[in-house]
């Protein structure tokens, strides 16, 4: 079965045949080197069981790789209807292991697309990559792994640790919920057409339970306030939360002159938990 996928015509030929000129507004930067896409697919872990969810399969370079690497069931969500016939051809060659849904991944509940273990693997459209990731973090208990291509700068923000210049709200949210790992960095020339910036693949593996006790929505609020004004001391940047900031910082046992970039994930979780309790006391 995998052999039939490997024997499909070259991606460049398929793109030309279907007139799939890349559209910027859809973030279309295609991967046409199957050696590279197979390398990415192998970073996704054991894909022979459960469901692989691919966002934005485009002409199917990564899709083919997932199938060639033995994925039992790939469910792909693609916004561009021009990709349908191409993906149908891949589905047929794979013996029906690929199903495509046409639509906007931002509105799709990925946990409804197939059985666990669910692994999301994607060369993401960069304009919606961050909101997609934040949405998946909210459903992390239903997801086994996410192997995702981002702009390198965003990837660095996901894996950063306190004190790094890239340490960010995304790093706190992601590492509170998952183990994160930078897998590989890719130059613009790896894509067709090449984007302006470097790219990188990150794997996020959700932990069984979050690393520290607090609610994601509180962590989101606290990190948005803290990193919204990252150069300011927390005493100032957390003011927007609408609770007694001095009392919050005191109770969390952190130094009022600290800045967001120096706080650990655990400290952010402590603040988030206290923030909830203080709001409860206020109401
Ligand atoms: N996976 C292909 C590859 O690696 O060659 C294409 C990756 S390209 C960076 C991003 C893909 O996401 C495009 O095919 C684009 O049409 C699709 N896309 C863009 N926005 C989307 C959205 N909101 N929902 C689903 N797919 C989307």
What does this structure look like?
This protein has 283 residues and is an alpha/beta fold. The protein has helices spanning 2-6, 11-17, 34-42, 61-68, 84-93, 129-138, 152-159, 169-177, 216-228, 234-237, 245-252, 265-282, and strands spanning 30-31, 51-55, 74-78, 98-102, 118-123, 145-151, 178-186, 191-192, 199-206. The chain folds into two domains: 5-206, Vaccinia Virus protein VP39 (Rossmann fold, 3-Layer(aba) Sandwich); 216-282, Orthogonal Bundle (Helicase, Ruva Protein, domain 3), CATH 1.10.8.100. The strands form two sheets. The protein has a seven-stranded mixed β-sheet. The model has no long low-confidence stretch (mean pLDDT 96). Helix 3 (34-42) crosses helix 4 and helix 11 (245-252) crosses helix 12 (265-282). Helix content is 39%, strand content 17%. It is elongated and about 65 Å long. The structure holds S-adenosylmethionine. S-adenosylmethionine is lined by residues 26-31, 55-58, 61-62, 77-80, 104-106, 123, 125, 128.
Descriptors:
single chain, 283 residues, alpha/beta, Rossmann fold, Helicase, Ruva Protein, domain 3, 7-stranded mixed β-sheet, two-stranded antiparallel ribbon, 12 helices, 9 strands, 17% strand, elongated, binds S-adenosylmethionine, methyltransferase, rRNA processing, rRNA_adenine_dimethylase, EC 2.1.1.182
CATH top-level class of the largest domain: Alpha Beta
Structural class based on helices, strands and sheet pairing: alpha/beta
Low-confidence stretches: none
Mean pLDDT score, rounded?
96
Number of strands: 9
EC number: 2.1.1.182
GO molecular function: 16S rRNA (adenine(1518)-N(6)/adenine(1519)-N(6))-dimethyltransferase activity; RNA binding
Binding site for S-adenosyl-L-methionine: 29, 31, 56, 78, 104, 123
Protein name: Ribosomal RNA small subunit methyltransferase A
């Amino acid at each position: 079965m995998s052999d039939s996928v490997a024997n499909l015509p070259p991606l460049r030929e398929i793109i030309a045949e279907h007139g799939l000129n890349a559209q910027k507004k859809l973030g279309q930067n295609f991967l046409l080197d199957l050696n590279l896409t197979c390398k990415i697919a192998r970073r996704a872990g054991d894909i022979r069981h459960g469901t692989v969810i691919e966002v934005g399969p485009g002409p199917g370079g990564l899709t083919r790789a997932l199938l060639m690497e033995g994925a039992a069931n790939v469910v792909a969500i693609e916004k561009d209807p021009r990709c349908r016939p191409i993906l149908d051809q891949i589905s047929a060659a794979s013996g029906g292991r690929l199903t495509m849904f046409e639509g906007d991944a931002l509105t799709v509940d990925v946990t409804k697309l197939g059985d666990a273990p669910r692994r999301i693997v994607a060369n993401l459209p960069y304009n919606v990559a961050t909101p997609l990731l934040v949405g998946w973090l909210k459903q992390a208990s239903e997801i086994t792994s996410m192997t995702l291509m981002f702009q390198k700068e965003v990837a660095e923000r996901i894996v950063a640790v306190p004190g790094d210049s890239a340490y960010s709200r995304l790093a706190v949210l992601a590492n509170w919920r998952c183990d994160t790992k930078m897998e590989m960095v890719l130059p613009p020339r790896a894509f067709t057409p090449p984007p302006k910036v470097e790219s990188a693949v990150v794997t996020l593996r959700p932990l069984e339970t979050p690393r520290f006790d607090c609610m994601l929505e509180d962590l989101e609020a606290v990190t948005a306030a803290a990193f919204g004004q990252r150069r300011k001391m927390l005493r100032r940047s957390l003011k927007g939360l609408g609770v007694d900031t001095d009392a919050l910082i005191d109770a969390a046992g952190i130094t009022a002159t600290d800045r967001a970039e120096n706080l650990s994930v655990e400290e952010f979780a402590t603040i988030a938990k206290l923030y909830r309790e203080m709001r409860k006391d206020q109401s």
